[in-house]
């Protein structure tokens, strides 16, 4: 990662890959709008069907100029750095015509190809980070590819044994930054308890502590950890996972110098008097922490994958097929703009830590 980040030339805007996601959803529109809005500070290179994106950009605003690049040309000659008067698109052609709001499995593999190109681009030094628009998991699975989500896919493709999903954003009341990480991600609720182990929590806490320091610039991260069960198990009467798994993992992390505290009852932890002493909350499962985060920050939240050998952020919402079907102008690009800003901040913090 450090070799990639050190290649930026003075005076050249940092280049970030933006995969435009499910073509029938709002991803293409919000990617174009956000890339154009932030074009003076960051070179957002879109990855998707160039002809489709040029047409969409023109429909949004005829003043938005799009320059198409072939993946092969970039592989052979590197990424050209245009000025902020245009958006670059690395062409990843779709297989089927796009009807807004209507999924087509024939385009599933092309969506995956944009992720592959983004990962390749970071590894080759074209990009300093990746920002992903929402995709539709069902379309990719219907295309014959087993796919459970961006987080798991990036981990597999980069040979990363452990990653951590974290969402972050400014709270609607007060504006303080709220960060919520997950010990498990896209699992059925019935499988969560078995997936929690002392070793697994140890790896997660190590990743959280390291990335909060290195990518967020927090010198001494404070992590508050939720229990799994109601009332954090109530002394074992409502479950023993807190006693047998979570508390020992926290004790071991503290012995390694990590400021991780808990386990706390999740129903009372998300209050200002507790959060003011936290840089991140670690929830045990998806719907324990994310409803709170999204309620507090929706439209400004950012999805971040920690532990990867690259920086990857995303929006905090889905494909919004219903909005896409209504035509352009209905979608809010705010979360995508925040995802780009978060990626840029993480890039700069990582560069500062290399000095």
Automatic annotation (TrEMBL):
Protein localization: Cytoplasm
Keywords for the protein's UniProt record, in alphabetical order: Cobalt, Cytoplasm, Magnesium, Metal-binding, NAD, NADP, Oxidoreductase, Pyridoxine biosynthesis, Zinc
Highest rank taxon of the organism: Bacteria
Binding-site list for substrate: 150-151, 294, 303, 312
Short name of any one Pfam family annotated for the protein: PdxA
E.C. number: 1.1.1.262
Cofactor: Zn(2+); Mg(2+); Co(2+)
GO cellular component terms, A-Z: cytoplasm
GO BP term, pick one: pyridoxal phosphate biosynthetic process
Cofactor binding annotation: Binds 1 divalent metal cation per subunit. Can use ions such as Zn(2+), Mg(2+) or Co(2+).
Binding site for a divalent metal cation: 186, 231, 286
Molecular function GO terms recorded: 4-hydroxythreonine-4-phosphate dehydrogenase activity; cobalt ion binding; magnesium ion binding; NAD binding; zinc ion binding
Catalysed reactions listed for this entry: 4-(phosphooxy)-L-threonine + NAD(+) = 3-amino-2-oxopropyl phosphate + CO2 + NADH
Pathways per UniProt: Cofactor biosynthesis; pyridoxine 5'-phosphate biosynthesis; pyridoxine 5'-phosphate from D-erythrose 4-phosphate: step 4/5
Repeat in keyword set: no
Similarity section: Belongs to the PdxA family.
Subunit text: Homodimer.
NCBIfam families according to UniProt: pdxA (TIGR00557), PRK01909.1 (NF002520)
Function: Catalyzes the NAD(P)-dependent oxidation of 4-(phosphooxy)-L-threonine (HTP) into 2-amino-3-oxo-4-(phosphooxy)butyric acid which spontaneously decarboxylates to form 3-amino-2-oxopropyl phosphate (AHAP).
Additional remarks: The active site is located at the dimer interface.
Name of the featured protein: 4-hydroxythreonine-4-phosphate dehydrogenase
Organism: Duganella rivi
């Amino acid at each position: 990662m450090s070799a990639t980040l050190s290649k930026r030339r003075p005076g050249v805007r940092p280049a970030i890959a933006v995969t435009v996601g499910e073509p029938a959803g709002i991803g293409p529109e919000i990617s174009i709008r956000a890339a154009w809005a932030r074009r003076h500070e960051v070179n957002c290179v879109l990855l998707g069907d160039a002809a489709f994106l040029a047409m969409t950009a023109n429909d949004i605003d005829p003043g938005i100029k799009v320059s198409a690049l072939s993946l092969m040309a970039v592989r052979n000659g590197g990424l050209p750095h245009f000025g902020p008067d245009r958006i670059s698109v690395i062409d990843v052609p779709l297989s089927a015509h796009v009807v807004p709001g209507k999924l087509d499995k024939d385009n599933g593999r092309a969506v995956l190809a944009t992720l592959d190109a983004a990962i390749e681009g970071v590894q080759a030094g074209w990009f300093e980070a990746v920002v992903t628009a929402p995709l539709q998991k069902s379309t990719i699975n219907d295309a014959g590819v087993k796919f459970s989500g961006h987080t798991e896919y990036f981990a597999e493709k980069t040979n990363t044994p452990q990653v951590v999903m974290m969402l972050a954003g400014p709270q609607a009341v007060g504006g303080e930054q709220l960060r919520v990480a997950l010990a498990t991600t896209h699992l059925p609720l019935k499988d969560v308890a078995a997936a929690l182990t002392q070793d697994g929590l140890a790896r997660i806490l190590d990743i959280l502590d390291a990335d909060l320091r290195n990518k967020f610039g927090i010198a001494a991260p404070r992590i508050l950890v939720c229990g799994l069960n109601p009332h954090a198990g109530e002394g074992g009467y409502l479950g023993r996972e807190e006693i047998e798994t979570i508390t020992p993992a926290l004790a071991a992390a503290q012995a390694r110098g990590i400021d991780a505290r808990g386990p706390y009852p999740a129903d009372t932890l998300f209050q200002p008097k507790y959060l003011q002493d936290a840089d991140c909350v670690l929830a045990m499962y998806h719907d324990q922490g994310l409803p709170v985060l999204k309620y507090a920050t929706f439209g400004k939240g950012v999805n971040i994958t920690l532990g990867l050998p690259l920086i990857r952020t995303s929006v905090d919402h889905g494909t919004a097929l219903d909005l896409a079907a209504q035509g352009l102008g209905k979608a809010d690009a705010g979360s995508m703009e925040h995802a780009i800003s978060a990626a840029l901040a993480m890039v700069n913090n990582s560069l500062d830590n290399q000095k």
